[in-house]
Structures are given as C-alpha cells and as structure tokens.
C-alpha cells in the first residue's frame, strides 16, 4: 500500500489575495460600491490636483510685497511678510527672544514626558503646570530682573493664543478639582453651590462670558480698580473652563471603585488625606485624555477673543487681510491659520488617543 | 480587669464631630458667598450711579432707533428695545433650527460613509472629520464669509438659475410663495394626512401583533401626507402665486433672500457640527456588538430589517444623548454670528442694544438667561430620555 502523500496546497485564487484581492474587497465588492468608488475618484481628480497646484506648484513663495505674486497661485508672500506678527503680535522686535526662550524651555521640559523610562514624570508634570507659568510670566511681561516691561496690549498672534489656552487650563484645573469634589460632597449647601456654579457656566456660550468679563467685570470692582483687557478675558475663560474641567474630573472620581474610598477611611485618613493620597492620584490619571480633549476645545475657543478685541492668531490674520496693501489675500491667511490650528489640535487628539490606549491596558476589566 | 479602659468610648470633642464640622464649614461658605455677592452688588450700584446709568428693565420700552438687516417679524427704527430682543431670539432660533437639520443629515451621511467597507469612501469621510473638527469654528465662519461668499459677483452680474433664483454677494434670492384664497384647504389636507397616518400606523402595528400580517405603512403615509395635499392643491385650482425677485437699481427686490451672513454661519455651523455628529453616529453603530447582527441573521432577518429593527434602535441609545449635547453646542455656537454681523441674539441684543443703552447688567443677564433656560430644558429632556431608554437590568 502506497503511503498517502498530500499534494502541496494550491495558492489562493489570485482574485482573493494581493493587490487584486484588496481592490476587489475594498473598492469594487458590489455594483453600488463600484459606482461610489468611481464617483470618489472623479471627485478627487477634480479637486486635488488644482488644490496642490494652487497651494504648492504655482504658488509664490518669495518676495516682500504683493508685486511678487504674479503666478496666479497662492501668495504665501503675504504670510511670510507678516510672519512675525502672526506669531507674536506687536511684541517689540528686540524682545522677541524672550518668547522664543520660553517656547524652547517649554519644549525642552515636555520632551522627557514622552520618554518611556523617565521616572519623575509626575514631578516634571507638576512643574510644567504650576512652576513654568511663573517663569514664563516673568519672561513675557518683564519689569523685573532687568527685563524691559512689555504691556499686555502688545501681546498677540499665536503666542497670545497659546498663553490664553495654557492659562485657561492651568488655572481651571485646581478650580475644577475643587468643584468636582464639592459636587460629590455630602454637605447639601456645598453640593448645591457647586452644581449651580457648574451648570451656569456650562449653560452659557463662551462669547457671552467674554462679553460679561469685558463689560460687566469693571462694574463689579470697586471704583478706581481695574484689570487690563487680557486679564479680564482670562478670568472669563478660567471660570468658564473650570466648569468643564469639573465635569471631566467628576467622571474620573466616579470611576474609582467604592472600595478605595472605604479603604482610605478604614486606614483612618482624613477627607483631604484620602482625596489627596488615594482618590485624586488615581482619578486624575484616568482623566488625562479628557483633560487633553478639554484643552483642544479651549485651544479652538480662544479664537473668540477676536470678538472682544484681543489680537490672537486669527485676529492678527483677520486684520492683516483687511490691510489696504494686501486686500484679496484672505484665503492664504485663513489657510495658514487653519493649518496651524489643525496641526496643534490633530497632534493633541492623537496624543490623547494614544494615552487612552495606554491607560486602558493598566486597568484590566474585572 | 483593666478598669482604666472605659467600656463606653469618650464622646468626641465637638469640633471633631463630622456633623458639626460640616455645619460650620457650610455656614462659613454661605457667609463668604453672601459677603462676596453684597460687595459686588454694592460696587455695581455705586459704579452705575457714578456713570449715570439707570437700572431696571424700563429701557425695554424705549424706542430702539436702529434697523436690523434681517428679521422674521416686522421691525424698524421706531420699534422698542424689547422687540430687538425678540428679533434676535427668533434669528438665533432660525439659524439653530436650520443648522441642526443640516448638520444631522450631513453628519449621519458622513458617519455611515466612515463605516463603509468601501476603502476610499471611508477614507474620504475620515479626512472630512479630521479636517473640520480640528479647525476653530470661528475661523470657518470667517473663511466662508470673507473668502468664499464675498467673491460672488455683484447683483448686476448675478448668477441666475432660470428667472427665479439669483445668487450674488448680497445673498441668495428666491421666489417666495404667496398663498391665495383657498390655500388653507391644502394645509388642512396636509394635517389630516399626518393624523390619518398616525392612526393607520397604530392600527397596522396592532394588526401585526395580532395576526402577523404586515402593512405598508410607509407608502400609505407618503400617499397621505404628500399625495393628499397635492390632489387637494390641484383640484382647488393651484391657489399659490410666486413673488419673484426683480433687479431694481443696485439690488433685487421682492422674493425671499438668504443673506450671506446667514449662509456663512449656516455652512460653517453645519459642516463643523456634522464632523462631531459623524463620530457619534459611528461610535453608536460600533457600540452594538456584532453578535446582535449575527443573531438577527440567524433568526432569518435580512440586512435591511436587521439594520432597522436591531442595530439602529440599540445604536440610538448611545447616539441620542450625545446628539442632544451637540445640538446644544450648535445653538450656543450660533452666538458666533456676531463676528460676521448676522443679527442673532448676541449680536443684536448683547451687541447693539447694549452699546445703545449701556445697561450691561440687564442685557447680559437676559442673554445668558435665554441660553441657560435652553440648556436646562435640554438637560431635563436628556435625563428623562436616559431614564426611559436605560437598559433594564435584572
């Protein structure tokens, strides 16, 4: 009896694997899909080449006035001429190094946060949140350490956008934590005060908050006392943001199992000890992605200060495009602003997603 | 016997008892808040007196003295400030309502496209979502208004579609329907159609429960709601005239117009919000486990009924709460209208009226109250909905 020798496996049909298989499965699985694919391809053919042509190939890149823009494509000269204003507003030329120094310092501080083996992330994070702002403030506004005073009405551009959103988050975080704890408190008055505060700020649009801080805040203060415009806007943003932050933190507090609270109590820890040592460290770690998402929303919302007359990035671009010398180049300006905002927001949202994935693994389902 | 050990623990000192501490803390909190509130009130009254601004809501009855570019109710310079509030409110409601409809349609389409097995369609949807939700809304509004709509031709060189629709940099002009005598019969037929459809649907449902026989409710409904009024309309002698826009001088007169401010705001709001709605729809549909689809197929349901009866009702449980909060966001975001000059509540009332009267406190309070009421109503609705639709776990 001859031994059974299995035939070698036949290769999979050519129509199911490789490039052809992929095309068949993903682009042309049915007549309807074929039609949609063709329509999509036609759409891309119609719009993508002209877009690239406008933005890159037939664009004008170099020059110092609108006369350099002759080719009919995008006129990036508009952006390059105004680049300094878009970045730092009217900040004096001789002092721009201060902004750059703070930016470099910030990036240098952030790098270890992305290094896997770095052990002191918590301390460094705390320093970035609560130590760095003071250094940055001294650098930006000057008036001490032999630095020349730069009034806040000279601040502008992307620099102002970043300052507003960073301050908004840093100041809103502690306030938000307190509000979240208050909302979960068993004391009825504390709880209701926090609920009213949170629901009030979450219920009104930011623009009315900014209006309020610019017209109503001066009325609230004693006579003769007044803040500058930037500080007023910041107060509005922080109050508004703290309510959203409180809800993010609260979601983290709710995710901590009851056993943790009970265990902390059983160990004889006081309320603040158990919150500070047991609950908050776990809850805050859980809500880091939520905080980043709040930051993204705030970063986009800071553009609203345009309406109360502060010169953030969008506002700089808006006023530059109304300049008589550069009329008709709004699109370039808006595209440039959109690109900057997009890079920041997209980068941060990816970061938040990767954090979410990383944190998920450490909390296996029970 | 350890007699020094008391059998009853000593009563804790008063300031160590949680109840007492809570009481003291809360009394302190109330005192601080009261002090803070009274100081602010005192300062405000003093400041207002110094600036010679009267308080109270009497200004609402004063003549406004400014015109508004677009209003749904009659408005001119001689109307009161109170009426500017109403005009602004109605304009806000209009743009939010239209925006919600457009954003929902667009968002559902993109969300479903994102889940498509067609690679290129799903990629395009992803590009749409990632592009538009990462660009600030205000930037998008300004882009549509200053970069796109401002490039449209002047009224004399309008882009015309037939003799009824004209597009230029002053807006989109369309013929407006003017009902004539007898048109009310068509409207009545429309409502009769809706009511009849409702009862037929109930009857069909009952019959299916009892006998298993199905009834084409959808077709009957379409016939009743669209067909019936159409027949009545034709038989009553088409009692509808059109008020067509006509070029007079520098601009069109007559007809309906969508002003560019409204168009820019509407475009930006619906495109921006649609990118969020698309993600919500996607996550909602993905949240229904694949086992549900398999079970439905095993029961012999085909694709369409599976989607309609099994997937969508369960996905809606996840989608609706998030969708509602997006609607709320859209309504709040419509306040950005003030950047391009669309006369919504914030632009007209918290902008022009505030500047004219100087009654900052009253005006801002009224504006905020509108948004607050709205968001409280919506959160009550959400709580009610969540309670009703919650999974009943046994």
UniProtKB/TrEMBL annotation, chain A:
Biological process terms in GO annotation: amino acid transport
Tree of life domain: Bacteria
Keywords carried by this UniProt record: Amino-acid transport, Cell membrane, Membrane, Transmembrane, Transmembrane helix, Transport
Keyword NADP among record annotations: no
Transport in keyword set: yes
Stretches assigned to the ABC transmembrane type-1 domain: 158-352
Name the record gives this protein: ABC-type amino acid transporter AapJQMP, subunit M
Native source species: Solemya velum gill symbiont
The organism's taxonomic lineage, starting at the top: Bacteria, Pseudomonadati, Pseudomonadota, Gammaproteobacteria, sulfur-oxidizing symbionts
From TrEMBL, chain B:
Location, primary (coarse class): membrane
Pfam families associated with the record: BPD_transp_1
Protein topology in the membrane: Multi-pass membrane protein
Ranges annotated as spanning the membrane: 20-41, 53-73, 85-113, 125-147, 181-205, 217-242, 262-281, 363-384
Record key words, sorted: Amino-acid transport, Cell membrane, Membrane, Transmembrane, Transmembrane helix, Transport
Intracellular or extracellular location(s): Cell inner membrane; Cell membrane
GO CC annotation, single: ATP-binding cassette (ABC) transporter complex
Key word ATP-binding present: no
GO biological process: amino acid transport
UniProt domain ABC transmembrane type-1: residue ranges: 89-382
Gene Ontology terms, MF aspect: transmembrane transporter activity
SUPFAM superfamilies documented for this protein: MetI-like
Family that this chain belongs to: Belongs to the binding-protein-dependent transport system permease family. HisMQ subfamily.
Name of the protein described by the UniProt record: ABC-type amino acid transporter AapJQMP, subunit Q
Organism: Solemya velum gill symbiont
Gene of this entry: aapQ
